[in-house]
Amino acid sequence: MRTRTALILTSLLWIFPYLLLGGAGILWLAERGWSFYWLILAAVSMLVAQILYRNRSRKARSELRDTANVSPSTFWTPAGERAWVEVQKIAVDPNLSISQINRPDQLWELLNRILQIVAREFHPRSSKPELEVPLPRVLLVVELVSRDLKQLLKTKIPGSHLLTLHDLQRLQTLAQWAPV
Prior knowledge:
Number of helices: 7
Oligomer: single chain
Radius of gyration: 25 Å
Strand content: under 5%
Number of strands: 0
Low-confidence stretches: none
């Protein structure tokens, strides 16, 4: 608890000069009679920022939709094609939302569900088909996912080459203290 209190106190001390400066600026604008002009400028700035944000969001969503259109390979086995059809049913499920796959526990459940569906197509006689996946295949999937995550980190997170596991642990602790 002492760490949390220290964090809050430190944050307030960092923010205080800016709040003081903002208050003095508002007072100065009011004394000069420029408050109305500042308000108009602030409103226009926020409007332009909102328009730019919406355009960027639409572009990002359309890019996501474009990359989400994946087609099955032409050299898959019949079991692979059946598994693909089942996975596609999950992909177009109206009950599946972005907020669900943003939560690790629900993403893990979805991953297990997909793994069981695909494994059942390849090993229908097994009582635990998801455990019938050959170890080299599992390692290949881990390798491919790791490569994709590395590329995602490099392109989407500035300064990711400087992040350490300790930094991520601190961020996780901070997220637990101040949930969004």
